[in-house]
């Protein structure tokens, strides 16, 4: 399953979204959701504790001036990989 987070982790119940995730699922941080990947944040701790792969859209990080502030444990991707993730997963949950 592909989970996407497009809202700030401060405005979303991130733990509830992560409870839907299982082994082998992917989470993509987009729009204001990229804030969940900030170094040394509680949201990042939740993401890294989940049994999922976590990606962030590089263009959204750059648009918010956050390059260098995102954890290196988050894989930065472009739109091509975003499309590949949507093709890979038949189910999608947005948060």
From TrEMBL:
Keywords: Cytoplasm, Transferase, tRNA processing. One of its GO terms (molecular function) is transferase activity. The keyword tRNA processing applies. It is found in: Cytoplasm. Pfam families: DsrH (PF04077). One of its GO terms (biological process) is tRNA wobble position uridine thiolation. One of its GO terms (cellular component) is sulfurtransferase complex. InterPro entries: DsrEFH-like, Sulphur_relay_TusB, Sulphur_relay_TusB/DsrH. Belongs to the DsrH/TusB family. HAMAP family: Thiourid_synth_B. Heterohexamer, formed by a dimer of trimers. The hexameric TusBCD complex contains 2 copies each of TusB, TusC and TusD. The TusBCD complex interacts with TusE. Part of a sulfur-relay system required for 2-thiolation of 5-methylaminomethyl-2-thiouridine (mnm(5)s(2)U) at tRNA wobble positions. This is Protein TusB. It comes from Chimaeribacter coloradensis.
């Amino acid at each position: 399953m592909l989970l996407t987070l497009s809202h700030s982790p401060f405005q979303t119940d991130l733990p509830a979204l992560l409870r839907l995730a299982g082994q082998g699922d992917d989470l993509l941080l987009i729009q204001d959701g990229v804030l969940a990947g900030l170094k040394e944040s509680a949201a990042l701790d939740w993401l890294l504790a989940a049994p999922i792969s976590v990606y962030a859209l590089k263009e959204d990080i750059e648009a918010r001036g956050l390059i260098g502030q995102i954890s290196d444990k988050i894989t930065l991707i472009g739109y091509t990989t975003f499309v590949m993730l949507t093709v890979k997963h038949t189910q999608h949950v947005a948060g």
